[in-house]
Amino acid sequence: MANFPKGFLWGGAIAANQCEGAWNVDGKGMSVADVAMFKPNVDKKDYVSQWHVSPQDIENARKSQDEVYYAKRHGIDFYHRYKEDIELFAQMGFKTLRLSIAWTRIFPNGDEKHPNEAGLKYYEDVFRCLRKHHIEPLVTLSHYEMPLYLTEQYEGWASREVVDMFVKFSKVCFERYKDLVKYWLTFNEIDSVFRHPFTTVGIIEENYASKEQAEEAIYKALHHQFVASSLATRYAKEIIPDAKVGCMVTKTLTYPETCNPEDIYLALMDNRFNSLYTDVQVRGKYPLWIKKLWKDKGFQIPILEGDEEILAAHTVDFISFSYYMSMVQSVHASKREKVGGNLTTGVKNPYLDTSEWGWQVDPKGLEISLIDLYDRYQKPVWVVENGLGYNDVVQEDGTIQDDYRIQYFSDHFKAIARAIENGVEVMGYTSWACIDLVSASTSQMSKRYGFIYVDVDDYNQGTYQRRKKKSFDWYKHVIETNGSEL
Ligand code: BG6
Predict the structure, then answer these.
(1) Which ranges of the chain have pLDDT less than 70?
(2) Which pTM does this prediction carry?
(3) By residue range, what is the domain housing residue 372?
(4) Which DSSP state fits 318?
(5) Whose C-alpha lies nearest to ligand 1, atom 9?
(6) What pLDDT digit, counting tens, does each position of 215-255 carry?
């Protein structure tokens, strides 16, 4: 099998809040990630509780300097070790690295007049280091790390002012990195607003009198992110003539349990909802059904004069997405065995294996997703997150024999190859995460994704030493042979 196109962008993905650490260094402000706790007593498949951050949690976190349970505060110390890590990525032959900029390093609270030079300089050094190794940066502007201050002093993204602050932050980044970064993503998994609103748009659900009011605020916040994303796309192109900007969504492919039309309808409704985000960011307008839904629910979404023109005028160049699992819908859901996932819980699919964290592994679903997205929009697609969380064990001889990960990637790469064979334009692939880091949902270190093992555990014990896993050389070979030997 050798059908990956020449120039295919092989690489890996990381996010600032999960790897950098250095949460209070060089003028950085607190972000929503710095208050997310590792909760060892919560079932690791109970993602709703793992993700949830209450006003009391925020207050406690503000007072605490702890870095053990607030694991994203230490990450894997990429902040100080990025040169060593990028050197390892280069050894694997990476063509690209997806990484994010922590907004709070540039604007610690979000609403300052002037950016923080130390933060700007840090990312400039990182991007220069990548360029030195001929690695193309793919930069996410917002990956679950908005300034905490904006969630407390404003209403998170439900406040219109946040649009201007984000656009200002984006413009500062484009100006500063225009010669270093060409590929940009605006919001990571923009669809996660409903799964974990605090982390995504800074909405504190307890601040609303009812569930419906919180839901309305989430839709407002989403609208503001759509507008901000379009404006950022506009400025990226004005400031960086060869810029390419993508949206980033979670592909939550849902299958019907049976051919019962009721099951098919339920799956269709889930998939339709999952298309809302790309419909807006790729087609440049809201589908009619969502406006009807707002009307039926009595929601007032502040679509200001000119907003719809902005959405229509500045659509994205490509579609990027994360893909980890598929879901199943059934009219008999209440009677069926359930599985977890950091996305949602659903009916167990008897044809699929499930990871230790309850994620249903489905390579064929990746092929289906690629075809589905490409056929819907005819825009290039890029898989920017995909990988297996596993509690890797270091053997007595110091090796990590992660054959399960090799199998996982091999199966998913074959799926991408088949989609390409089927006429889908795939730009690249960045695995999540190319180096072990702190889990977004559970704040664990033991949920490891990398080709590179990092010696630190769930309780921040360890040397932080990096070690190549078996999959390291395997992925190197995949890249060397452009996916022809899987
Ligand atoms: C995606 C996020 O949802 O899934 C990443 O964009 C995250 O930030 C990844 O790390 C894997 O999820 P988790 O919860 O296992 O870290």
Answers:
(1) 1-2, 340-345
(2) 0.97
(3) 9-480
(4) E
(5) 440
(6) 999 999 999 999 999 999 999 999 999 999 999 999 999 99
List strand residue ranges (DSSP E) for 400-476, in order.
Answer: 426-432, 452-454, 466-468
Q: What is the pLDDT of residue 340?
A: 64
User: What digits encode the pLDDT tens for the residues 350-386?
Assistant: 999 998 888 899 999 999 999 999 999 999 999 999 9
Taking the CA of residue 189 as reference, the ligand 1 atom at the shortest distance is: 6
Gap from CA of 260 to ligand 1 centroid (Å): 33
CATH code, 449: 3.20.20.80
Give me the sign of the Cα torsion angle 175, 181, 187, 188: negative
Of all protein residues, the one whose alpha carbon is nearest to atom 15 of ligand 1 is 439
Residue 315 Cα, ligand 1 centroid: separation in angstroms? Answer: 25
Strand runs labelled E in 204-268: 244-250, 254-256
pLDDT tens profile 35-62: 999 988 887 777 778 888 999 999 999 9
CA-closest candidate to residue 189, choices 91, 274, 312, 92: 274
The tally of domains found in the chain comes to 1
Amino acid letter at 65?
Q
- C-alpha separations of 32 from 108, 342, 441 in Å: 12, 18, 13
Question: Strand runs (DSSP E) across 299-425, as ranges?
Answer: 318-322, 327-329, 338-339, 346-347, 353-354, 360-361, 381-385
- Mutation pick for ligand 1 pocket among 45, 441, 444, 447 (CB with most ligand atoms within 8 Å): 441
On whether residue 3 sits in a domain, the answer given is no
Tokens of 68: 């053990």
Residue 431 belongs to a domain: yes
CA-CA distance, 100 to 187, in Å (whole number)?
10
Asked whether residue 224 is domain-assigned, the answer is yes
pLDDT (0 to 100) of residue 49: 82
The answer to whether position 85 is within a domain reads yes
CA distances from 355 to 49, 253, 359, 360, 406 (A): 19, 17, 5, 6, 14
* pLDDT given for residue 1 in this prediction: 53
Ligand 1 — pocket residues by CB below 6 A? 15, 18, 188-189, 322, 342, 385, 389, 432, 439-442, 447
| Rounded Cα gap, residues 255 and 373, in angstroms | 15
What is the C-alpha to C-alpha distance for residues 145 and 184, in angstroms, rounded to an integer? 16
Cα dihedral 409, 411, 415, 418, rounded to 10, equals: 120
Q: What is the pLDDT of residue 436?
A: 98
Nearest to 439 by CA among 373, 370, 390, 371: 390
